[in-house]
Each structure stands twice: as structure tokens, then as C-alpha cells.
């Protein structure tokens, strides 16, 4: 045969061969007895030989049917196991794509609390910086920083992406940082960071042209914060993420002014998945767990 027979006919054969009864097979498959008989007839015509001996009140396999039945049964067992494993994996694992800053500054320290609450649900986190297409990549949901979710996505706002200058306490004294304009004397860790001129303008400093020169682009707040804590310069950071460092004296937020350009960290997912149990469970947890972060928002 150039192709497989119809799956409906094969399912009917497997059920009749297992039960040796058209009636019980029909009940199992939710079909009429006549429909089951028709499917068996189609299969027999395709094979060119009978599969069952139909006797009064008894059904028996022919030699061909007896040879074929265990192979078909094993094939269906393999399919059932494969689909069961896939279902368990899909239901038992939550795969998240998370922007690096949120992942490193908050989620890594708190995800264990979710797993204590839901030990049946494993969580896989990827921190690639690119925007994931949920229709093409195997992620269930994600945490993104944006001003508006893309079409087809929905989600919850977790935190404003605020920004303000932070630096090591030693630099505050070394560069005599007393007012916003004094920050212009402090080395800037990422010279192409647009948040500093935006913040200076908000703080009332006249438009200034920051000197550009060769520099290292660190790429994430986590790395810029590490450089700031090492005393290398001023970094533009999101205040709620660095309260412990400020309390420990590793960083200083010298001014209360905080900038915000309309961006939020969202827990985002395709609209079609809003009722998935694992999405609902994580959504409820993370909205509640990030409430203390939102309480620290300043704008």
C-alpha cells in the first residue's frame, strides 16, 4: 500500500479485535455498531482479505486478523504513551522567557516560593534578550518590558520601569555630588544610555551634550549595577530592584527624582492561553508576589 489506511478504520479494528465484539467496540468508540462494521469493511477491502469470521453470537479473528491485531495494539499503546508523556510535560512544566534584569534582580530570588506553593509544576526560565514569538518558540508566557503589549497578547502590569542615577557612596563624596548637575562630573558607566539625559532634563538640568568616547556596553542593569557598586561610575537603575544594596551602603540614590517613560514589566501570554491552569496559577502568584515592588514605585 502506498499510504496508511484511515485511522478511524484502524481504531475500529483494534477495538473489535480486543473485545471480539462489534457491540462492545462500538460502545467504547462512541459509534454505532453499523458504523464500526462499515469501518472494518473498508479496511478489509483495502487489505483484500477478511479480518474477522462473523459467526452467530461470536466474532473470531482470521489468520490475517490474528497476525495484525497484536502489531496494531502495540502501535496504539505507543501512541497513547507518547501523547500521555507529552500531555504531562505540557501540563507539568511552565516555560518562561524573562528579560534579564527582572530575572536576575527579582525572579531568581523569589521563584522558589512559587515552587513551594506549586510543587507539581516545574518552571523553566530563559533570559534571552530577544523578543520571543510565542507562536514559533516553545514558551508558555514571559515577562517583558514594554509600553504596550503586541497584538494577540494580554497580561498584567507588574512594575513600572522607572530609572534614577545610582553610584557608590565613595563617589558621592569624591565628586561632591550635591545637585543633579554634579553628576556630569562622574564617569558614566554606559555612555549611550538614554535614561541619563532624560533624567537630567526631568531634574531641571539644561540640555547637555554628553561626551561620547570609546566605552564598554554592558547591556543589562545587573551588569551596570555591579560596575556602579565597584565604584566605576554612575548607572541608571530601577530603584525597587536595589533596595537591599542601598540599605547595605553598596549603592546610593542621591536624588529622589525618578524618571518613567511609560514602560512596564508585564507578565504576558497569548490571549488563547489565558485559561490554561498553569498560566492562571503563575499569574495569580506573581501579581501578588510583586505587590511590594509596586509599593516602592515613586512616579
UniProtKB/TrEMBL annotation:
CDD domains: PBP2_GcdR_TrpI_HvrB_AmpR_like. Residues 5-62 form the HTH lysR-type domain. InterPro entries: LysR-type_TF_proteobact-type, LysR_HTH_N, LysR_subst-bd, WH-like_DNA-bd_sf, WH_DNA-bd_sf. Keywords: DNA-binding, Transcription, Transcription regulation. Pfam families: HTH_1, LysR_substrate. It comes from the Bacteria. Belongs to the LysR transcriptional regulatory family. This is LysR substrate-binding domain-containing protein. It comes from Devosia albogilva.
